[in-house]
Amino acid sequence: MPAANIRARARAEMVTEIKTIARRHLAAEGANLSLRAVARDMGMVSSAIYRYFPSRDELLTALIVDGYQALGDAAEGADAAVTDRADLRGRWLAVCHAVRRWALAHPAEYALLFGSPVPGYAAPQETTVQAARTPVALIGILLDGFTTGVLPDPGPGDLPDPVRADLAVLRDTLSTGLPEALLARGATGWIHCFGVVSFEIFGQLNGVIEAREEYFDHQMRRLSDQIGLP
């Protein structure tokens, strides 16, 4: 194997180990990461870690991108696993439940993505591409329903003009072709899904709802009714 390939493999393994240890710190201490603490746990001098991640923010960005990628994989995989592509409700429920399962399995990473902003950190553009994958998966279900005629155009409805303008920009950015009112339903569904998940992950359901999975499923089915998914 060429020396360059050996060095690249060694670097990739070191980056993976750094991120693994950083995730342990996320689970124990939240997003207040310290490169020095990660280096100490790896048994390396503090200066050495900067060859891989020059700043805390670059490490946070790598973890955020990984988190969004993993969540996107879970959402897209759940949608693809529904063999009856005309079963829009089944696909919607599959994606929503996949989001919840991933969040429960990775609460610290979910908190990094959807919890309180990290003081002093501004996420770069590279995180938004991966962040869009899950809502795009949900919107894609609505688009399939619209293009096949299952979901009719609901018309202008009562959307405020400024909101309609925002949604038109979003529609053009995503190249979905969805009417603004349908896109608004998808956005509401995405927010509702993550809102229920966040309430569970961050403890707001403690002492209130114990049948968490059944409650979540009920909420998502009600949401499917509101969106008009058959």
Written overview of the protein:
The chain is mostly helical. It has helices spanning 3-29, 35-42, 46-49, 56-80, 88-105, 107-114, 126-131, 133-147, 161-174, 180-201, 212-227. It contains eleven helices and no strands. Helix 4 (56-80) packs antiparallel against helix 5 (88-105). The termini are far apart. The mean pLDDT is 89.
Layout: helices, strands, pairs:
Blueprint: H1 3-29, H2 35-42, H3 46-49, H4 56-80, H5 88-105, H6 107-114, H7 126-131, H8 133-147, H9 161-174, H10 180-201, H11 212-227
Helix pairs in contact: 1-2, 1-6, 4-5, 4-6, 5-6, 5-8, 5-10, 5-11, 8-10, 9-10, 10-11
Summary of the model, kept short:
The chain has helices at residues 3-29, 35-42, 46-49, 56-80, 88-105, 107-114, 126-131, 133-147, 161-174, 180-201, 212-227. It has 230 residues and is mainly α. It starts with a helix and ends with a helix.
- End-to-end distance: 56 Å
- Compute the CA-based radius of gyration: 21 Å
* Total beta-strand segments: 0
Approximate shape: elongated
Work out the helicity level: over 70%
Biggest beta-sheet profile: none
Task: Report mean pLDDT, rounded to a whole number.
Answer: 89
User: Which segments are poorly predicted (pLDDT under 50) over 5 or more consecutive residues?
Assistant: none
Strand content: under 5%
List SSEs in N-to-C order.
HHHHHHHHHHH
